[in-house]
Amino acid sequence: MRRPTITDIARRAGVSPAAVSFALNGRPGVSEGTRRRILDAADALGWQPNTAARSLSSAEAGAIGLVVARPARTLGVEQFFMQFISGVQAELSERSHALLLHLVEEVDAEIAAYRRWWAERRVDGVLVVDLLEDDPRPAALRDLGMPALLAGGPDPAGVLPSVWIDDARAMTAVLDHLRGLGHERIAHVSGPAGLLHTARRRAAFGSAPHGGPGPGVAADFTDAEGARATSALLAAADRPTAIVYDNDVMAVAGLSAARQAGLAVPADLSIVSWEDSTLCRVTHPTLTALSRDAFRFGSTAAARLLSLLGPDPAGGTADTEFDLPALVPRESTAPPPRTGSVTPGP
């Protein structure tokens, strides 16, 4: 069907195109009765404003950008990230903004996308995720003059404002739980090396007041890498009695790998997932996990970015700390086995 035009609305309402333009743009020049008749005609025809044309006159795109520099196959398996995007979209929809999502393979391509979007006036600002150590993106966005917010942080360089979660305190809560059960040999299967939140979690893991660092293996959030890392840890002579995983997918894969190694969870090995999800609640045994509201985290980040737009950005460059994840103990954690004992796996 052809998109209805101002002329179509004018014909249906029995007025001039100029009167339609005044009414649709909230300008004076038409009576209230005429304005109502025009709006009813527009609604009956299914008319929607042309946001591209409006952006040319208002210098606003009505859209927020999100570029994710991850392989698509790893993005799709992470429930946290999908819930985060859903929260962003919900908040933007409430504010009549769109979300422009773009997947790339590496950071240089992400920066190129920012430059292209800003030159073409495609977005009013961007959300930045997966901050790296020595990340070039904050400086690039500052040089562009492009409004941006870091979802996760805070930014060590202080360039981008952020909505952030205290990874160090969250890791301490996990270790407190495991140490309280009597575990001393605790391992960590992290996300990719180079991610700032991976480095922060690993640093907190190694500097916990309970003792020195345990073994750590970097993975990529997928089930295959979670299983590989678990098998490597369990093959060691002094294998861990507990493993902390940086997401739910790797934790469930670790549970399977432990069973294949002839170990029972939690009798021989305790497992904790950094992310809670349906997977953690339906697997057997159910998995102890850190629970955070990924949907609300996304909506909070989107709302904070929108508050930065305009000549007088609300809150300036201040960071916003999000709620600390809550540890939810379930069936996958228990006291460690006695020395030399191994419970037959299922």
TrEMBL record:
PROSITE patterns: HTH_LACI_1, HTH_LACI_2. Pfam families: LacI, Peripla_BP_3. The lineage of its organism: Bacteria, Bacillati, Actinomycetota, Actinomycetes, Streptosporangiales. InterPro entries: HTH_LacI (IPR000843), LacI/GalR-like_sensor (IPR046335), Lambda_DNA-bd_dom_sf (IPR010982), Peripla_BP_I (IPR028082). Transmembrane segments: none annotated. This is DNA-binding LacI/PurR family transcriptional regulator. PANTHER family: ALANINE RACEMASE, LACI-RELATED TRANSCRIPTIONAL REPRESSOR. Residues 314-346 are annotated as: Disordered. CDD domains: HTH_LacI, PBP1_LacI_sugar_binding-like. Residues 4-58 form the HTH lacI-type domain. It comes from Nocardiopsis composta. GO terms for molecular function: DNA-binding transcription factor activity; transcription cis-regulatory region binding. Keywords: DNA-binding, Transcription, Transcription regulation.
